[in-house]
Specification:
four-stranded antiparallel sheet, five-stranded mixed sheet
Amino acid sequence: MSMLQPSSCKGYQLKLPQIPQSPEYAQLDQYSRKKLSLDCRTGAAVNLSRANLFVHGGSTIPLNIENITILTLQKELIIYFSKTNNNKNNFGNLNQWISSEIFFLDLVSRTWHHMETTMDDSETNENLEIQNDLLSKDIQHGSLESPMKGRLFHSLCYFGSAVYIFGGLVVSPHTGYELIATNELWKLDLRTRKWSLISNDPRINRRYSHSM
């Protein structure tokens, strides 16, 4: 009996998402442009559904980490920003390097696409009050414009024309440089491209680097 031989494989060139050449996007700072370019992601959530590969969040800083813990991440970030005076001087808030953007790769055309999304602030959103409460807390700390924070080492799945993300690490609104775990469950309706908060029940343990 002959031995089984592996089937042949082939690499393909992929088209990365392009930042639109409009006045609105031309005024973006370097941090926002990195989040939209998908050049690098550390700790992004990834899931395959039919002919699409979804990628959400992650850090735009390239980190090579074997043992994923908050302390290890903080140490690697300190090392990264200490390498050159330029990086150290540019550090303002860790949110600058953590993305909340979502992309999908069309496996048929082999092209990446950036998905522009908004928050679901309609009255039909059952958790609108909780969602607005998160927003008000962020405004009090002077941190974010949206309750949908950027995150890394979270999980993602696709079900029923929607993408769900759970958990992960977000930047503490109290300091701007510490990472804390979250237990938020968010839903992105792919038909309306709107995010809505499904749950942040305190009875569910916060977690990161988990499966879903």
